[in-house]
């Protein structure tokens, strides 16, 4: 392992027998509408561990987790329904000291332990890897966060709420609508290149 790589909080050891879910997990946004920063936060015991995520990651969580849980239910009908708290605490907890900005996120299922797995990769390391040789890519560290299916269900719902609490989206072009109004190009002129409108 490269000594120059950042040192992360050790959430889980690499021993399969020691895998266990976080105490709780949530997502939220801080800052003014239009300039919000999205946060993914897990608790290991009473200690919060946070990551900065993109809005697109929050949108993806809100969509991918329900799909994954539906697939799990279909593939393993012997499993019970996800168990959730009657009054879950989904608020972000101070201090918000992110480990890193997430560049890549994966959601999967560990059937052996019956846990949903979030795989988080540092955006800075993805940029480094983009300039590295192919053999160096195997050194890319990633953090895995294990949750119960119930925790994952609540996370997906909370991520969706966090996104919808921001600026509304124009039904025609999909762009966010500001308080002062919105200029929407006609459908025939609506083309995108690198995230910018072409006139």
Layout of helices and strands:
Elements: E1 24-30, E2 37-44, E3 47-53, H1 55-75, E4 98-110, E5 115-122, H2 123-130, E6 143-147, H3 149-164, E7 192-193, E8 196-197
Parallel strand pairs: 3-4
Antiparallel strand pairs: 1-2, 2-3, 4-5, 5-6, 7-8
Helix pairs in contact: 1-3
Description of the molecule:
- The strands form two sheets. A six-stranded mixed β-sheet has the order 1-2-3-4-5-6. A two-stranded antiparallel sheet has the order 7-8.
- By secondary structure, it is of the alpha+beta class.
- The relative contact order is 0.19.
- The protein folds into two domains: 151 residues, Secreted effector protein pipB2 fold; 31 residues, no CATH class.
Summarize the structure.
This protein is an alpha+beta fold. Helices cover 23% and strands 26% of the residues. The radius of gyration is 19 Å and the shape is globular.
What is the typical, i.e. mean, pLDDT? 79
Integer count of domains: 2
Low confidence ranges = 1-10, 191-199
Categorize the overall geometry.
Answer: globular
Question: Strand order of the main beta sheet, please?
Answer: 1-2-3-4-5-6
How are helices and strands ordered from N to C? EEEHEEHEHEE
Bin the strand percentage.
25-35%
Q: Tell me what the CATH architecture of the largest domain is.
A: 2-Layer Sandwich
Q: Characterize the main sheet.
A: 6 strands, mixed
CATH top level assignment of the largest domain:
Alpha Beta
Structural class: alpha+beta
Radius of gyration, rounded? 19 Å
DSSP E strands, number: 8
Helix content: 10-25%
CATH topology of the largest domain: Secreted effector protein pipB2 fold
């Amino acid at each position: 392992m490269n000594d120059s790589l950042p040192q992360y909080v050790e959430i889980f050891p690499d021993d399969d027998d020691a895998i266990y879910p976080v105490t709780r997990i949530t997502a939220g946004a801080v800052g003014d509408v239009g300039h919000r920063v999205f946060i993914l936060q897990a608790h290991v015991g009473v200690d919060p561990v946070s990551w900065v995520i993109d809005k697109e990651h929050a949108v993806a969580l809100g969509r991918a987790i329900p799909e994954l849980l539906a697939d799990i239910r279909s593939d393993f009908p012997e499993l019970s329904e996800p168990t959730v708290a009657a009054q879950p605490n989904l608020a972000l907890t101070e201090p918000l000291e992110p480990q890193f900005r997430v560049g890549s996120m994966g959601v999967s299922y560990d059937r052996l332990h019956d846990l949903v797995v979030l795989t988080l990769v540092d955006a800075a390391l993805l940029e480094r890897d983009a300039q590295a040789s192919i053999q160096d890519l195997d050194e890319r560290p990633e953090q895995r966060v294990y949750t119960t299916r119930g925790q994952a269900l609540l996370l997906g719902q909370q991520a969706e709420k966090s996104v919808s609490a921001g600026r509304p989206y124009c039904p025609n072009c999909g762009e966010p609508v500001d308080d002062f109004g919105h200029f929407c190009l006609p459908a025939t002129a609506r083309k995108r290149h690198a995230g910018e409108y072409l006139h």
